[in-house]
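Retry 2 of 3 after timeout on previous attempt. Resubmitting structure tokens to design endpoint.
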């Protein structure tokens, strides 16, 4: 695997809670069916695709002074500055802490595994048709997730019965519109992926609801995780806002393949 510190760096950027207040009330392009048109590449130039939050309580970086310099050592659960944490049942708190402290070896992403829903966050490109949306993703720099995709039907179908689904990293996603908001309902997970870097595990019965709304050239995304098997209450993840890349020639960069080389060399639990 490439430098793990870069993985943590990108994870930090992907965990930034965001606000689109400055972009609100802008005109929104419409598809032929009248719904907002989400089509496009939702990633600007490097470092420019996130809209920073003005909320002082929303930790843009979960580290001392909000700097990348301190993020690597401060991203452990017990030291993490972000107050928005999932609340686990008491019998699972010890497991969460152990996974967090052993994250270098236990985090699936450090072994080149997919991020899964909802950790993979909002898509980098959307192709919208009247009956489905195609989400395209690229790996964070030096990440182990790999390029991936999701196909979100919006044709009114119902979920496959949960007992008939084989648990997967991305689950079975079905979308519908609530006004101008796209709601994506996903079930049918494995229990291997994490919700975040800090040992936040989940069960196979996890249920994820994502909401996406467009304001002008910004796309707002937020996910709610329901998992009564392990969580005391649903966890509403930090919202993220992405900016549209207006370049008509913009393309998604290809992610380099992940090759794991670090795990066999780990000698401490230091978050690196």
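Retry 2 succeeded. Sequence:
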């Amino acid at each position: 695997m490439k430098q793990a510190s870069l993985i943590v760096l990108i994870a930090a950027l992907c965990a930034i809670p965001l606000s689109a207040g400055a972009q609100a009330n802008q005109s929104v392009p419409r598809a032929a069916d009248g719904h907002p048109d989400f089509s496009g590449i939702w990633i600007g130039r490097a470092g420019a695709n996130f809209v920073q939050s003005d909320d002082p309580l929303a930790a843009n970086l979960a580290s001392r002074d909000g700097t990348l310099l301190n993020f690597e050592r401060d991203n452990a659960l017990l030291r993490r500055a972000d107050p928005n944490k999932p609340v686990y049942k008491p019998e699972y708190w010890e497991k969460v802490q152990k996974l967090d402290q052993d994250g270098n070896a236990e985090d699936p992403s450090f072994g080149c595994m997919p991020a899964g829903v909802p950790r993979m966050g909002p898509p980098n490109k959307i192709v919208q048709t009247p009956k489905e949306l195609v989400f395209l993703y690229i790996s964070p720099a030096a990440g182990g997730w790999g390029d991936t995709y999701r196909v979100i039907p919006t044709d009114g179908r119902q979920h496959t019965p949960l007992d008939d689904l084989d648990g997967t990293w991305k689950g079975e996603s079905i979308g519908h519109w609530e006004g101008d908001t796209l709601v994506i309902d996903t079930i049918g997970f494995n229990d291997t992926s994490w919700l975040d870097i800090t040992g936040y595990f989940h069960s196979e019965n996890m249920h994820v609801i994502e909401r996406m709304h467009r304001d002008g050239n910004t796309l707002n995304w937020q996910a709610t995780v329901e998992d009564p098997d392990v969580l005391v209450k649903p966890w509403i993840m930090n919202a993220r806002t992405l900016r549209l890349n207006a370049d008509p020639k913009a393309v998604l960069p290809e992610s380099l393949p992940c090759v794991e080389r670090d795990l066999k060399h780990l000698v401490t639990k230091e978050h690196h």
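Attempt log closed. Residues 1-25, 44-61 have pLDDT under 50 and may be disordered.
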